[in-house]
Amino acid sequence: MTDLKHRMAVAAAIAEEAAALAFQMRANGMAETTFKGAQDFLTEADGATETFIRAKLAKHFPDDAIIGEEQGGAVTGDGPVWILDPIDGTSNFSRGSDRWCVSIGMAQGGRAVLGAIARYAPAEVFVGAEGCGATLNGQPIRPATTTDMRRAIIEVGWSMRKPLAKFHELSQGAMAQGAGLRVGGSGTLGLVETAVGRLDAYIEQHINSWDACAAVAIAREAGCWINSFDSGDWIASGNPIGIGAPALGGQLAALMQEKA
């Protein structure tokens, strides 16, 4: 196994630098929006931030594969592969909101094993790696202790890759169990905020690997319930995602299965 503790520290520093870079780019007018598809936002800062992260990772780990949302890539063998989202929450970023982040995940042997997620405002760095624990700004994190869906706050992610009716069914299913719903425009933040207990769960019927790899590694180390997201062809094709408070895992799993 690679030295995950060292890699985690390097990834955290790069993510923090990249978040500051993206923020400055936006201040300099590099957040003008184009579209890759319906509700699929892109700015000049996305590409420039990914280029910055790739260069930093290549300097430290020249033999590792890298996959990014904007510039692609592929898995080569069973060695480490970095999986990047340079700006998750681009729609928020482009409109001046601070609900966006930089996400740097790493998979090895087909499993999400490391994550570093940085926000600029507020200044937050979430990190975690297999066997190394999970922290926010250096302090250990744990998910919520919620046991009752009637007391739960759940974010339901919306994916253009699934029929809108399926999103409605999943949302209605959660509400029927008494949960309060949120939709925040950044899947990565919804996932990692579940790991720190700000939310009780994040569920979505499809999410890409670059949106979830880092958060899955962090949430797993924090002690969350997690579905089988990092299985099958998840790196290339994505999967359904469910992360939640441990005591809600059975109910969340049943809800996602019922509304699949």
From TrEMBL:
Entry annotated with the keyword Metal-binding: yes
Short name of one Pfam family: Inositol_P
UniProt entry keywords in alphabetical sequence: Hydrolase, Magnesium, Metal-binding
Keyword Nucleotidyltransferase on entry: no
Similarity annotation: Belongs to the inositol monophosphatase superfamily.
Protein name (database record): Inositol monophosphatase
Highest classification ranks of the organism: Bacteria, Pseudomonadati, Pseudomonadota, Alphaproteobacteria, Acetobacterales
